[in-house]
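Narrative progress, year one. The postdoctoral researcher (J.K.) led the effort to move from monomer predictions toward full complexes, under supervision of the PI. The following entry was the first complex the group processed end to end, covering 567 residues in total.
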Amino acid sequence: MSLREPESTAAALTFDDVSVARGGNLLWSEGTFEVPAGGIAAIIGSNGSGKTSLLNVVLGLIPPASGHVRVLGKSPGEVNEFIGYVPQNYASSPGDAIRVCDSVMLGLNGTRWAFGRPTREERRRVAEVLDSVGAGALAGRRLSELSGGQRQRVAIAEALAAHPKILILDEPLASLDLRNQREIVQLLDRLNKQLGVTILVVAHDLNPLLGVLSSAIYLLDGHAHFDTLDGVVEETLLSHLYGTPIEVVRTPQGELYMRST
Amino acid sequence: MTTRVMAFGYQDNWWSILTSSFMSSALAGGTIVALAAGLIGYFVVVRNTAFAAHALAHIGLPGATGAVLLGLPVALGLGVFCVGGALVIGVLGTRRSDREVATGTVLALATGFGLFFNSLATKSSSTMTNVLFGNLLAISGEQLVTFAVLLVLLAACIGFIYRPLLYTSVNVEVAEAKGLPVRLLSMIFMALLGLAVTMAVQAVGTLLLFALVVTPAATAIMLTPKPPRAMVISTVISMVSVWLGIAMSAMFNLPPSFVIVTIACSAWFVVWLLERHVRPRSTAARRMSAEFVADQAGAVGDHSHR
């Protein structure tokens, strides 16, 4: 096992008294929690509360203002090859010059130096991962020809190509219609169960995700907290978090949803 | 006026002109420049840096006219200013929103200085014309060697950073999250662009450079979504434009730059027309059927694991 290999028993994220600042302003502090590996955790908080900065700390793109962060038992930035990332603005990238399979191929070998023809094994992996997100038929399309839902599937395939242990998605459901939202949520649930990949998902609307979430990191009043789903889906906390009265409804079928009252 | 019009006629002795030594230098030089343009042009289009490429060509102007003032080789002045300007644009314009303004400001300043240096040296007005419009026919054997060395350097660098450069070009956020040095790659790319522009300016000039670097790459991307193939097609378009340009300049005594640019732009226009009138319908149809298949596949997948 190489030194860069993450520790298999480690938690996905370990935060020890972490604070995060942007441009000299403290966004949040006193983040002490552990996100266990294997679940689906939401990252929630109002606009400007520091959700994207949290992701940047996990990815090692910015250092925490204080405290210690471990990702898969290693320092952030050391294990980026084991993290798949689906950014919020996936649709803003130029999609005309490249095919779906090329973009997934980059997810597999894009960080390797020197020109190299894709190997048979790499081609097989690209086809396999596209099939696993239900986008196998799109392999030869230009990215610019895809709909929003298709593009999100392809972005997930690209993030999954290199067998990540953590999959991070920034607002994956924004700008999708209800049906595509439901399908992406089902896809995440299936990937989590089949591949055992830990999923962190930034979302401003929790409702579509409530059925699959196991826990949530929430940024409230300048502090970062972590709790199981049952601990988070609680009317006082949610009302405080969203700054508007929230009612939690449990249907007779056991489904959970929340609405502002 | 009449003598000028008379000058653009068919020349009986075009074959002997074309096979003369200065023409073979022009062909060799043009071919090297076309190869360089094809290599870098694809990334210029994908990275949305067409305006920077255009501006860099102009930024070379004060370098060239300044070099004449100081009695230095024109190509050296061009190279220093193009690569230097590329790095300045790279530093000032990290954010996409800043880049346009940074590029335009550097461009205006450079053009002003180019004009100023030119006014200081009466001798350099032919240099000015050569830099503005290029002169393939004036390429010397010494320049050819420099061009060949620069092309090898360019190809080696692009070959080495190919995959990370492509990744940061098409999906910068994910590439950064994967730990790629996005800023460093961007600076390396700008420096390489500066090199390619230095060569291309001497072939087609600052005013027409766009047509040799950007236009063929844009044409190629319309024709194919496969990156390596697009680079090959773009290189071929540049090369054919240069060869035909030189041949027709020998036949009809036209300035080669004019013919090169006309051919490259016509290719773009024809492909653009074809794409607009042929592709939309088929694309829409394919998109519909692809979406259907994907949705079916997704639905089947979801059910089978539930």
